[in-house]
Amino acid sequence: MTALAESTTSARAEVGAVPSFDVTLRIRRFDPDNGAEPRWEEFTVTAHGTDRVLDAMHKVKWEVDGSLTFRRSCAHGICGSDAMRINGRNRLACKALLKDLDPSKPITIEPIKGLPVIKDLVVDMEPFFASYREVMPFLITHGNAPSKERLQSPEDRARYDDTTKCILCAACTSSCPVFWTDGQYFGPAAIVNAHRFIFDSRDEGAVQRLEILNDKEGVWRCRTTFNCTEACPRGIEVTKAIQEVKRAMITRAF
């Protein structure tokens, strides 16, 4: 037997040694084509503790009910497309391990709040991205194009490093009570992405962004509940970033 074959056999043995169990997913379903109200539906599948919620949902879709609809892409916490409410908290389904959710009880899964539901767990992200576009999430400079790259010190880069981690999953924005009740509020994600450029030493559009966020539906609508920080799958200090934007407005005003 070759070394590769031995390795493969060993890996399969290790996988086989992991005990399996039945887990029940209680999923919020909605089909706009049948005109019915949203409903809860339960599915029981066999899984392992090291499986993720996304793995269990794949088993439901591939083996039980192919009509179950949800977004996912990379399945590694990078694309942010599979954000949903799992046991009442916003999470990425690809990062939530079944063993961390007490699989002995039904795991509830529903779409993120504050955005129109298109079908099952898929929501309309356009209002979210509209706010994102409005804060001009790109480098703004004036004058002629430079003849060489714009250099930046490690200290200047570190100033906004945290907010560069955003993957636009909407977990923070859709966990905000203000966003749930006020569809005009920019939301945490838009402010985080504005922060990323406001504090970039190479950017010259900070004043414009601060004027946009100084609107009545901008940063002053934040109630500092920390829901956004707790929901962020990337560990961004969202509430801190919002406070820094508020402070920048006051500082520049005086």
From TrEMBL:
InterPro entries recorded: 2Fe-2S_ferredoxin-like_sf, 2Fe-2S_ferredoxin-type, 4Fe4S_Fe-S-bd, 4Fe4S_Fe_S_CS, Beta-grasp_dom_sf, Helical_ferredxn, SDH/FRD_Iron-Sulfur, Succ_DH/fum_Rdtase_Fe-S
Alphabetized Pfam families for the sequence? Fer2_3, Fer4_10
Query: Which EC numbers characterise this protein's activity in its record?
Result: 1.3.5.1
Cofactor(s) essential for the protein? [4Fe-4S] cluster; [2Fe-2S] cluster; [3Fe-4S] cluster
Segments forming domain 2Fe-2S ferredoxin-type: 21-115
**What SUPFAM superfamilies does its record include?**
2Fe-2S ferredoxin-like, alpha-helical ferredoxin
Q: Name one GO biological process term.
A: respiratory electron transport chain
Family (UniProt) = Belongs to the succinate dehydrogenase/fumarate reductase iron-sulfur protein family.
The entry's protein name is Succinate dehydrogenase iron-sulfur subunit
